[in-house]
Design goal:
There is one protein chain. This protein has helices spanning about 10-25, 30-50, 60-75, 85-100, 135-145, 150-160, 180-195, 200-210. The protein has about 210 residues and is an all-alpha fold. It folds into 2 domains: about 1-100, no CATH class; about 135-210, no CATH class.
């Protein structure tokens, strides 16, 4: 992944200034959004054209998908991130993955819903999809970002958190480990144990809340 320090992207200081306008909803925030989207559009478009489930897209369709993914991802960038431009790119790519990763596993709309014989996927097609956001989620995601990168990835892969993107921090990740089911199970267990010991998470949710 190429960072925003290359001449393909805005200078990091300018990038951070634009993000600050958006975070604080200052005058010029809308123009800042458009500038950041356009700055990352080509990179995300190229990712879409390489990603197996979407590489069949036409060029213009890839541009539209990239724009939509970036626009959606901009609203999820935490104000505490030191390099938000890189985070934006990764979040947009993750949005594409989340949207299209299950294309090969489509079920018939006439298939019965699990646990019922009378309701099908078609019956719930128009059901509301907007769920209330748990106010504890930002606290949890902040604690996740304090974990080493390999722990973040392990928990992200296990729990499928759509609004969270693993992000490198000052903690050094471990060398690449085996991807066997046994090894990944133990990696997740260590990551989960460390997350539950996070002092800021415990202070915010209490011992019982963290254990839950």
């Amino acid at each position: 992944m190429t960072t925003s320090t290359t001449n393909r992207f805005l200078p990091r200081a300018e990038e951070y200034r634009l993000f600050t306008l958006i975070w604080k909803n200052l005058p010029g925030a809308q123009e800042a959004r458009e500038t950041l989207i356009q700055d990352n559009l080509a990179a995300v478009r190229n990712y879409i054209l390489r990603y197996p489930p979407t590489r069949w897209f036409e060029f213009n369709d890839a541009c539209h998908e990239a724009y939509a993914a970036l626009a959606e991802s901009l609203d999820k960038i935490p104000a505490t991130i030191r390099n938000p431009g890189v985070y934006l790119y990764r979040m947009a790519c993750h949005t594409v993955q989340w949207t299209y990763h299950s294309l090969a596993d489509c079920e018939s709309l006439d298939a019965a819903l699990p646990g019922t014989e009378t309701f099908t996927h078609y019956d719930v097609l128009t059901a509301p999809t907007t769920m209330p956001v748990d106010p504890r989620r930002p606290t949890l995601y902040s604690a996740l970002r304090r974990l080493p990168l390999h722990y973040q990835r392990a928990l992200h892969q296990r729990f499928h958190l759509p609004a969270f993107c693993p992000h490198a921090n000052s903690r050094k990740p471990s060398p690449a480990c085996s991807q066997s089911r046994y090894a990944m199970k133990h990696l997740r267990a260590r990551a989960y144990a460390e997350l539950r010991r996070d002092p800021k998470l415990i202070a915010a949710l209490g011992e019982k809340g963290v254990q839950a």
